[in-house]
TrEMBL record:
The lineage of its organism: Bacteria, Pseudomonadati, Pseudomonadota, Alphaproteobacteria, Hyphomicrobiales. The keyword Lyase applies. It holds the Pfam family Cys_Met_Meta_PP. Its cofactor is pyridoxal 5'-phosphate. PANTHER family: CYSTATHIONINE BETA-LYASE-RELATED. It comes from the Bacteria. One of its GO terms (molecular function) is pyridoxal phosphate binding. Pathway: Amino-acid biosynthesis; L-methionine biosynthesis via de novo pathway; L-homocysteine from L-cystathionine: step 1/1. This is Cystathionine beta-lyase. It comes from Bradyrhizobium canariense. GO terms for biological process: L-cysteine catabolic process to pyruvate; transsulfuration. Belongs to the trans-sulfuration enzymes family.
Length: 404
């Protein structure tokens, strides 16, 4: 297994990102691959038509365009896979990776801290096709070992976990899966191909919400799945047979976003870690869920396997009233409330108790997901602290009020 040092990997990727997935000589010298809009691809001769029919991707727009193939090729190179394919959303990449692998009667094991909509898809759709769906403890590999069987076809991982940020021991989990003959799908959206190399750790299919850091500006939805040589013949038809295809403008925005991925990720990494460190010191904070913090339970594995961290982490506050929480959210000036993440902007999300069936995730107070954008770290820290202060002062003023 090749280990790439953080600095080295980072510098190489920066250079790579400027050059992969484009071919000016093929597009009139234009720096960027233009937007191709098209359904029909015409042939001038019977011979050309017959030649194109040999390879579906050259004969109809539903199978892609020079633009979609440029993004797929660039992404595949970054991840170190055998082939990449685009989907119209991140969730579509997740669900079709599973659909490409399983058949009726198969068993699927999914990490308990998986992205919520994947759990809903597995519970409500896969089960209708008689696929048995089971969940396992994200950080206890003995639980995977106990539940895996001869009919387990797929093991689905996500690291760190959705909302709760547990870091998974990917090499160990992949070894257990492969020993039983199962394929491993991993959601690598959080780390991006820059900070986690899925195929070096045993993953067979990596899925991404390109909507997040690849697009990077909250202005398009797109999914990408990448497979190793073994899984590619299962993954690619799963897009083609279902008629999945991204829109040309969204693909263009994703390829444009990819150019600045390394500089943006560097800033998200630094901002989130600084913010997480400063929040750890605040008296209103119970826990900060960020694997880059040395006291995080996932820190050791994160340090061993990851090359960096993104802007997304969790914050557990000490118990506070709904009124105080409301003050906290409304006092924030730079962090707005919203789904999704990975854009340049900072976000917060009030999280309900995340759905878990195999893990007990006990919360002492409100859980908040934070996305640190690419603003100045000092401004983000100041904003978060003034809003927490305002929430704390409400408690003080209420207590004063009751006293007098
Ligand atoms: C957002 C997200 C998805 C789904 O992406 P969409 O483009 O919103 O469908 C999948 N996995 C993870 C980890 C995500 O954060």
């Amino acid at each position: 297994m090749k280990r790439v040092g953080h600095g080295k990997g980072f510098r190489e990727a920066k250079t790579q990102l400027s050059h992969i997935g484009r071919a000016p000589a093929e597009h009139g010298g234009m720096v960027n691959v233009p937007v191709y809009r098209g359904s029909t691809i015409i042939s001038e001769t019977l011979e050309e038509w017959e030649r194109r029919k040999q390879n579906p991707i050259t004969n109809y727009g539903r199978f892609g365009s020079p633009l979609s193939r440029a993004l797929e090729a660039a992404f595949c190179e970054l991840e170190g896979g055998h082939g990449s394919i685009l989907f119209p959303s991140g969730l579509s990449a997740c669900s079709h990776a599973l659909l490409g692998i399983v058949k009726a009667g198969d068993h699927v094991l999914i990490s308990d801290s998986v992205y919520g909509p994947v759990r809903i898809f597995a519970d409500q759709v896969l089960t209708r096709f008689e696929v048995k769906v089971e969940y396992f403890h994200p950080t206890q590999h003995s639980d995977l070992l106990a539940k895996i069987g001869a009919n387990t076809r797929a093991v689905y991982l996500e690291s760190p976990g959705s909302m709760t940020f547990e870091v998974q021991d990917l090499p160990t989990l992949c070894a257990i899966a492969h020993h039983s003959g199962a394929l491993v799908i991993m959601d690598n959206t959080w780390a991006t191909p820059l900070y986690f190399k899925p195929f070096e750790h045993g993953v067979d299919i990596s899925v991404h919400a390109a909507t997040k850091y690849i697009v990077g500006h909250s202005d398009a939805l797109l999914g990408i799945a990448t497979a190793n040589e073994q899984a590619w013949p299962l993954l690619q038809p799963s897009a083609h047979h279902f008629g999945e295809i991204g829109g040309p403008d969204d693909i263009y925005l994703a390829l444009r976003g990819l150019r600045t991925l390394a500089v943006r990720m560097g800033q998200h990494y630094e901002n989130a870690l600084k913010l997480a460190q400063s929040l750890q010191q605040h008296p209103a904070v119970d826990r900060v869920l960020h694997p880059g913090l040395p006291n995080d339970p996932g820190h050791k594995i994160w340090k061993r396997d990851f090359l960096g961290a993104s802007g997304l982490f969790g914050l557990v506050l000490k118990p506070m009233s709904k009124a105080q929480l409301s003050v906290f959210f409304s006092q924030l000036r730079l962090f707005k409330i919203g789904w999704s993440w990975g854009g340049y902007e900072s976000l917060v999300l009030p999280v309900e108790q995340p759905k878990r069936t195999e893990t007990i995730f006990s919360l002492n107070g409100p859980l908040i997901r934070i996305h640190a954008g690419i603003e100045a770290a000092s401004d983000l820290i100041a904003d978060m602290h003034q809003a927490l202060q305002a929430a704390c002062e409400l408690r003080v003023s209420r207590a004063d009020h009751e006293h007098h």
